[in-house]
Design goal:
Helix 5 packs across helix 7. The protein has 2 domains: about 140 residues, 2-Layer Sandwich (D-amino Acid Aminotransferase, Chain A, domain 1); about 160 residues, D-amino Acid Aminotransferase, Chain A, domain 2, CATH 3.20.10.10. The protein contains 7 helices and 18 strands. The chain is α+β, with helices and mostly antiparallel strands. Bound molecules: pyridoxal-5'-phosphate. The site of pyridoxal-5'-phosphate has 14 residues, from helix 5 and strand 15.
Length: about 325
């Protein structure tokens, strides 16, 4: 797979419309276009939320979705925070299944996958009342065949440690909503232009949070540290999975707040990594803070990062029966 992550699309999406308090029966339609009135609520007031999850194909041709229930719950939580109509779990599951089932040929061989993007938008045609929620909405599930987000697991990232700016608000960090990403863009663009960094690690007031699109882990041979879920960061499904697997592998798990000072002190003799559906577990090789570069360990992918990533991808490949309940076979 050579195309950048998320730039190629399977031909069909599943779509349902919400009006008068109910959802229409979902239908498959072309992924080529979606018509919106220029006054649509989402285009002005950002009434949107989405999810990102993956379906994997096995050699017998069956498709399996990783931690579908957690992604559905997070979509419902995001919808509630944006005052959009939360879909029933069974309805969203059905829409996701139908998109995968009709397009099994679109799922690349493991470790490739079909990245699924359920998306909800408010579509009231209304620009006169910014304070009013949209009473109508569209829910659709888009699918994109993907390879490796960061283009090879041996690449390490260079992160700007930003102790000034917040990615989003303390409440909305937990929502997967477009505005959060838009708010972070200028900081990421600036970090690239001025410091040649791949991503920004947001640490407002010195509190280490997450990057623009992944959770953050501080790792050594004995323990995993990551910020607790306090509403300000996205409750990552990969984060949750790594905490469970890490404990089983014998690491002590520290879900706690930690500072930039602790991060920079520990990084020299440890490992740092980003976790996410797209990132899986991607090693950080360098941290940049106040114009100075701090190598993380020896700058290469650390042994603990490799071990944790392997434990996760073994499950996703269907090679660990103990966690087979994390995979939902597409029926
Ligand atoms: C801001 C942010 N944090 C963390 C994550 C990781 O979440 P997950 O592991 O559920 O993909 C993502 C998305 O992938 C994200 O956009």
């Amino acid at each position: 797979m050579t195309a950048p992550f998320g730039t190629q699309f399977a031909p069909l999406i599943s779509v349902s419309h919400y009006a008068d308090g109910q959802w229409s029966a979902a239908e498959l339609q072309s992924a080529e276009e979606l018509q919106l009135h220029p006054a649509s609520h989402v285009l002005h007031y950002s009434s949107s939320c989405f999810e990102g999850l993956k379906a994997y194909r096995r050699s017998d041709g069956s498709a399996h979705i990783f931690r579908l229930d957690m992604h559905i719950r997070r979509m419902q939580n995001s919808a509630a925070l944006l005052h959009l109509p939360a879909p029933e779990s069974s309805m969203l599951e059905h829409m996701i299944f139908s998109v995968v089932k009709q397009q099994l040929d679109q799922i690349p061989a493991f470790p490739g996958s079909l990245y699924l993007r359920p998306t909800m938008i408010g579509i009231d045609e209304m620009i006169g009342s910014a304070g009013q929620a949209s009473g109508t909405a569209i829910l659709y599930v888009l699918a994109s065949p993907v390879g490796d987000y960061f283009g090879g697991s041996e690449k390490t990232l260079r992160l700007l440690v930003d102790d000034q700016n917040m990615r989003t608000t303390p409440t909305f960090g937990q929502a997967k909503t477009g505005g959060n990403y838009a708010a972070a863009l200028r900081f990421i663009a600036q970090a690239k232009a001025e410091h040649n960094c791949d991503q920004v690690l947001f640490c407002p007031g010195g509190n280490v949070q997450e990057t623009g699109a992944a959770n953050f882990f501080l790792i050594n041979d004995n323990r995993l540290i990551t910020k607790p879920l306090d509403g300000s960061i996205l409750p990552g499904v990969t984060r949750d999975s790594l905490l469970i697997l890490g404990e089983q592998l014998g690491y002590s798990i520290e879900e706690r707040d930690f500072t930039v000072t602790e991060l920079l002190d520990s990084a020299a003799n440890g490992e740092c990594a980003l976790s996410g559906t797209a990132a899986v577990l991607t090693a950080v090789g360098e941290l940049v803070h106040n114009g100075r570069t701090y190598p993380v360990g020896n700058g290469q992918v650390g042994a603990n990062t490799v071990k944790l990533r392997q434990a996760l991808t073994d499950i996703q490949a269907g090679n660990n029966q103990q966690y087979s309940h994390w995979l939902h076979q597409v029926q």
